[in-house]
Amino acid sequence: MPKKIRIALIAGGQSGEHEVSLQSAHSIIDALNQKKKYKINVIGIAKNGRWLIYPDLNFLLYHDDPKRIRLKPNGQPIALTKGNKPGQAKIINLKAKDAIKIIDLALPILHGPLGEDGTIQGFLKLLNIPFIGSSVIGSALGMDKEIMKRLLAQADLPIAKFLILSESDKKLNFAKVKKILGAPVFVKPANLGSSVGVSKAKNEAEFKQAVKIAFDYDRKIIIEENIKGREIECAVLGNQKPIASLPGEVAPNHDFYSYQAKYLDVNGATLKIPADLPPNLTKEIQTLAIKTFKTLQAEGLSRVDFFLKANGKIIINEINTMPGFTRISMYPKLWTISGWSYSKLIDRLIELALERFKQEQKLQINFSL
Question: 104: domain range?
Answer without folding.
Answer: 5-131
